[in-house]
Amino acid sequence: MRRRLQRRLGRSLALALALLCCAPAWADAPPTEYQVKAAYLFNFGQFVEWPAQAWSSPAAPFGICVVGSDPFGTMLDDVTRGEALGGRPLQVRRFASASEISGCQILFIGRSESGRIEATLQALQGRSVLTVTDIEGADKYGAMIVLRNDNQHIRMRINLAAARASHLVISSKLLRPAEVVGNDAD
């Protein structure tokens, strides 16, 4: 019963997230996997709290970043154009490697980084960066959110311990539809 409710909530959240920010662009066709994931990245900013030291200055933008090959193309830019989070303008940035990463509050780790996922996550230790990927099993290395395509539905696996270690607080609204791992109650 609880599992079925979680699935329904997950589907509802996914649909709501996609419709909230991207529906006009997708009016003629159903959204693609990466259009939905772009909407998730934008909306994660509304369900996570960052400590003040996550920004280099009070006027610094809210950074949504991608490291490795970028599966989004212009979709992420389209979703975030003209938007702000927490009173900060959104800025999308792309990096070729983990050593270049800066100014990010949310970092999507592309599949091209699967062989370097552990090193990428280690390079971010001690920084309050919400790490998101679609590399299966990355939560075992400390990725905070793993997005999985499960029968045409995007599912979330959230590593709560990894988020807490980076001083991030994830809202229960985001945790409810997700599979939570690394929880003290487990």
Account of the protein in words:
The protein is of the alpha/beta class and 186 residues long. It has one domain: 3-Layer(aba) Sandwich (Rossmann fold), CATH 3.40.50. It contains six helices and ten strands, in the order ααββαβββαβββαβαβ. Strands 3-4-2-5-6-7-8-10 form an eight-stranded mixed β-sheet, sandwiched between helices. It has a two-stranded antiparallel sheet with strand order 1-9. The longest helix has 21 residues. The chain is globular, with a radius of gyration of 15 Å. The N terminus is likely disordered.
How are the SSEs placed, and which strands pair?
Elements: H1 2-22, H2 33-44, E1 48-49, E2 62-67, H3 75-80, E3 84-85, E4 88-95, E5 106-109, H4 117-123, E6 130-133, E7 145-150, E8 153-159, H5 160-165, E9 169-170, H6 172-175, E10 179-181
Parallel strand pairs: 2-4, 2-5, 5-6, 6-7, 8-10
Antiparallel strand pairs: 1-9, 3-4, 7-8
Helix pairs in contact: 1-2
